[in-house]
Fold DUF3460 family protein.
Amino acid sequence: MPLFWKHYQSEATQFINELKAKKPTLEAEQRAGRGLLWDKPQDAQAQADFQAARVAQSPYVYFSRPKKG
């Protein structure tokens, strides 16, 4: 490795590192915000009902099949 080689950091990485240095609670706030929208308990019975109620999609959705009978 050459003596003049430096570890490269993109401008985006530098910005994020500076932001985290200025505001150390940022990651905890992000995790709390994620918890409000995404980390919800799942209802296993409702998921099973949704899976059971699925209807298979036809291979070519823009073609209407002729009615039988």
The CA atoms of residues 58 and 64 lie 9 Å apart. Helices lie at 11-22, 26-37, 44-52. The two ends are 78 Å apart (CA to CA). The chain has a mean pLDDT of 87.
